[in-house]
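quick one, 275 residues, struct below
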Amino acid sequence: FTLTIANAPDYKRDVELPQYLDSFTMIAFGDTRTNDDIHQEVSNQIVAEEALIVFQTGDLMDSGLEVAQWNNFFKIEAAMLESSFYFPIFGNHEVGGDSYYYTLFETRNSYDSERNWYAEWGPVGFIGIEQYKTRWAQDEEALLWLEETLIKLQDKRYLIFSHHEPMYTFSNHGPWLEGREVIQPLLEEYGVDLVLSGHNHCYERFEVNGIPYIVTGGGGAPLYSTGTGPEEEVPLFQNWGKFYHYLRLEISDEKIHVTVIDTEEQSVFEEFDVE
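---
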């Protein structure tokens, strides 16, 4: 369809909705808070990708309470928001700024609020959840919504799941153990193909029972190192890096080809396929 803005006669754009496409490119990145110059550089490189979808794993700014920071966020990401469909996850630094988040972002197919949602993008079913208002270990209704959503999306070629604080990480903030207990079994039962999170300001890749768990928190926040974890989890740990970055996901019916882009070196850190 063609999008025009009535009081901006010079604005005209032809748009293809992702749910009608068999293949497309998606960008994933996160934790864009604190360092505006770095956030801007990462954003500029993402815009150059001309991706259909840009997905952010949370912590858009340092304090969601401050409207000036929201204004600054939209100034930095203006070109990205104009050229791509944008989907954010609610992070811990958005806590307190709920009213701004609800006003500025609309997520359909949601549970309880705009914080928990799902979307259908061509061959992909995508589910995003939050971890601060919804008590997943106690809220049976929330878990039922998640399971029913996973069932609803079973006809999709791929299922991607995302949340802010990772279930698997060896970095600064420890893993989300509640998620391992009540959510991971559902992801495995219903064939989720990829899990994306942020919160730790680095890149990490784990593989757990055939599912890649990716931490992508290199969008501008101060970088963290990665250490070691429990001995029994070391075999799950595939790769890591301390650098600003984003992920390019080239999605087709055959596979999702993931490329990790180091924005400082403007180089490829690693590539892998999800089939």
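Residues 44 and 80 are 8 Å apart (CA to CA).
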